[in-house]
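Deliverable D5.2: sample structural annotation.
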Amino acid sequence: MGQVRVDPDKLEESADSILRNRETMERIIRELLQVTFELQMSWEGMAYQRFFNEFFSKK
């Protein structure tokens, strides 16, 4: 089996980048959920049901 050789500094830099991106994505998801819940308060009918069913199935 082959060996993977990675410079420790490069590995740490990559891990930090992944962590920052994860935190950014979590913030964006929270903001999307907030906007979606605000929409939910003033929307009804079949279009509402379809949108929210699809939105939450993708989450």
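Annotation notes: The mean pLDDT is 88. The helical segments are 8-40, 46-58.
The annotation will be released with the project's public dataset once the embargo ends.
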